[in-house]
Amino acid sequence: MTAAIEVQNLRCEFRVRTGVMSQEKRVIAVDNVTFSVPAGSVLGVVGESGCGKSTLARLILGLLKPTAGTVLVDGRSLFDLDRKARARLIQPVFQDPFASLNPRRRIKDIVALPLAAQGTFSRGEIERRVGGILERVGLSAAMGERMPAQLSGGQRQRAAIARALVLEPRIVICDEPTSALDVSVQAQILNLLADLRRDLGLTYLFISHNLAVVEHVASEVAVMYLGRFVERNETDALFRTPRHPYTKALLESVLTPEPGKGVPDIGLGDTMPDPSNIPPGCRFNPRCRIAVERCRHETPTPMVRPPAGMVECHLA
Amino acid sequence: MSTLLEIEGLEVTFGRTAAVRGASFRVERGETHCLVGESGCGKSVSALAVMSLLARGGQRSAKKMSFAGTDLTSLSDREMARIRGNRMAMIFQEPMTSLNPAFTIGSQMAEVMTRHKGGSRAAALDRAAELMARVGITAPGMRLGQFPHQLSGGLRQRVMIAMALMCDPELLIADEPTTALDVTVQAQILRLLAGLKRELGLSILLITHDLGIVARVADHVSVMYAGEVVERAPTAELFRAPQHPYTRGLLSCVPVPGRVQRDRPLGSIPGVVPAIGAGFAGCAFRSRCGHADETCTRAIPRRQAGDAHDYLCRLEPDWAEPQPA
Ligand SMILES: Nc1ncnc2c1ncn2[C@@H]1O[C@H](COP(=O)(O)OP(=O)(O)OP(=O)(O)O)[C@@H](O)[C@H]1O
Ligand SMILES: Nc1ncnc2c1ncn2[C@@H]1O[C@H](COP(=O)(O)OP(=O)(O)OP(=O)(O)O)[C@@H](O)[C@H]1O
Ligand code: SF4
Ligand code: SF4
Ligand SMILES: [Mg+2]
Ligand SMILES: [Mg+2]
Question: Where is the signal peptide (chain B) (predicted)?
């Protein structure tokens, strides 16, 4: 099977200056990542805030030039495609719907834009498709007449999803597509994404903090920590037998709806990792509950663990 | 316990749209009160109405709106501005709308403090760095010098939380404060808020659609639907004995990792919230409710299901779901 997304040794650095006099720092947001996503499947990406998920999404979308490494989408570099072809191939749904919707246009015009930009659809066809997709994401025709500021957070997110799907692209990069939605609307959107995948054979890269959602939609899950994939496996296997200590901590942090249980302290400490200062050895070692001496100077390499899956940990 | 914030019969309209329709809830001192409900039901607008921060075109009225004994409806803009950001602070749902892209994080945080409390900019920056460390931001010195677009979504959200705490508010209104965060950071932030509540007696009005969070941190819960509070209850009671059909529907569609059935669609409440204009009567949930009958088009009684537990529905308390034959 051909890979819809093929990523090789991808690296992305940002240089930030913290003050007039101070030194420039290098933030390594994505650190030498390699993976592929087979056509028609869903790769779920989970990981700590700031670990590089959105940066990875922007690299795949060709919105950001990598410092090193390559990204192939449907076997080609996006930099070789014109904008129209690119738009039919791959579309994003971003985390912050407010920032990604033009505040001066009506919702239905925002959703129509990708169709209009193709220059091949008649006005009637555009209207029909826009109406159809708005309905599928649960927005009434009256909502389509409004400006973004006149919608609630969740309604705006649905508009962003409608805009991404209206062209029926082959690949959709979803960055927290449903985190602004309540459970019922979230379920409606995820069921829609699942239907479209089945009907049209779409491929998704699906970034989310909601592990139950990822478990439901993903065929495979990658766990990202400080710019690297530290574990990857088929969804069921990852949830049933997490191997990396960070994956285990993630799963333990989920708040199930059980009153009186409080919020667990999962023992990761109170400081966050700093991508401008990645620790030597295993990058997780300062927070790892089971770290041994070796973890402080020797970097673990990706190891395949039968029957499938990959993990970067000396003890897994 | 005494009441810090009491809202009764809050109405907000935008032109012909009724965004909030007679919502009532109260936040006791030192408690965490959660506001939950369907996307678009009026949670953010209610919070913004309390803060007097409604967008242009928003009209507010209320039978009662009191904060620490002060009638909020009687305050002038200047008096309200002195309370806002100071005794009552808000974390907004979209951090980018409340952070100014043209200024560094440090200067925005310092400004909040010097405006309300005076003092030097250096002292304000120290406090900013201290609070950033408390919300789990490493290298606060570096982050203070950065601009909002240089931070990840989660970092921005933590900056917003630290900024809201600059002036030691009595009431913190937090609109979806952790939706942009991963679960480990979420747990950390919620523990932080619980600590502030315990140590400083902070009261929190928490808006969220994550029922896992509600269960773990709320003392009381108000469930909103189409601009109304349709059920109010102490947290344990709401989860044990939900009364309103909407609440029951909502609780039944929460997915839990490890218990997800992958080959089935996720559970949801069919249909969408109807557009509600002036003159709407009866129960707004009736187009989606399996128990609706003709009485649901008339005025709906508020029923008592326990001491602090009431709901808005024609059905008697502890009504039973009909068993499939
Ligand atoms: N334009 C930029 N300039 C400087 N640093 C940046 C820039 N964009 C991202 N970064 C940094 O790169 C790191 C990764 O950011 P990214 O947005 O990819 O994280 P993320 O995993 O999406 O986090 P979240 O879950 O919080 O959205 C962060 O430390 C962030 O501050
Ligand atoms: N400026 C505005 N002009 C017109 N209508 C508005 C405006 N702001 C909000 N609304 C409408 O008011 C209703 C309530 O919006 P609100 O933002 O309070 O929803 P919410 O409960 O916070 O939802 P979410 O969970 O999606 O954030 C929505 O139907 C929304 O479309
Ligand atoms: S390599 Fe060592 S520090 Fe890293 S995750 Fe494994 S046990 Fe923990
Ligand atoms: S009042 Fe009627 S329509 Fe409304 S929730 Fe109760 S039974 Fe359903
Ligand atoms: Mg992100
Ligand atoms: Mg809202």
Answer: none
